[in-house]
User: Fold these one by one.
Assistant:
Number 1:
Amino acid sequence: MRSIMMAASLLLLAGCAGAYTPTPLTPRQTADLDKALAGKVAGEPQTCINREPQTSLVAISNNVVLYRVSRRLVYKNDLIGSCSGLASGDTLIIRSYSSQMCRGDFATTANLQSGIQTGACALGDFTPYRAPKR
């Protein structure tokens, strides 16, 4: 049953992908993003990144997340679809079956207190932001 629900969710997400327009960032979210990326330079977007044990996730909005690898390297990911609840503290659960996270990997959001799934999306490209070498 769970497989059928997941397949239906993927089809729904795929069907909406062409018409999806991300919600613009609020002024506060824009300020948070600017602060997190301050002093860093954007690189070429990548399709996949390695799962790093020290990687931490920072949700900027329901559509934008940052993966902090170190003080010098942060990956920005513009989600495909909206993972409702991320901006209000819900947890992102990524369905990936390898040692990497890749564009198109399916993700859901859930409220850990209630156990209710609140959103569904897919990962987009990973844009690296690196601090320049001194």
Note: The first strand starts at residue 41 and ends at 42.
Number 2:
Amino acid sequence: MSVRLLFDRFDDIRGRIDIGDVRQAGDMPGYDDGAAVVPQGNWMALSEEEAERFRPAAATSPNTMVELVNQNLPVFASDDLPDRLDAATALDPLAGHWPRRRLACAVGPPGRLTSTEDSTTGHRIGLHIDNFDQQPYSTRQDSRRRLCLNLGPGTRYLLVGDLDIKEICRALGCDQDGYYPHTDDLRRYVAEGHPLRCLRIRLDPGEGYIAPTEFLPHDGSTSDAQTWSLAAFCWAEPNAPHLCTVLFDFLFF
């Protein structure tokens, strides 16, 4: 199963999503080791034909979809981080439809090809797989999805690989039921020359995503941003209904 992106009309996402190749970071400064997977930078606008390839089928589990959301934000001073942190703490982004879990925030400086850092080293890790739920290969698709909202003031991006971690593990021959997928599998897959492309989805202030970050290679990016931004994160219960059925007024599709 490749990435599944929920949308209505292609015009709703036209000009908002790019696609390109990936590579390993090699000796790029700021990365934890040369094996980290990063975008190559050869972005092209996602075509309507390519977008249709990522559209979910009727039987697709909501738990494996990427959905885009938005929410009206308070009026902030342009450089007021404390107010944004206060707003994130009080945020009920899904109006009580999904329980909040592990609300956290991250400040993203502009110009970062990828944003997630290893807290023990301060180095960036590139595209990766989250592992909070620690689901094995056989039930990996049942992990919780993550909600992220961009509280601004800058633009952010969601980077997401076009293959899921189970496809990657199958290609590597580690698709046993008891196997625990890991970011190292993604790095080995790319190192061995297997194909992987990356979507780059623009998130302006007040916009965000709900994505299966334990199932799809992903990261944030501020590569083209002119200023910093604050992202607020929380987790949702597994198998929650997708937002088109419960929160239509937050969707921008």
Note: Confidence is low (pLDDT under 50) at residues 239-253.
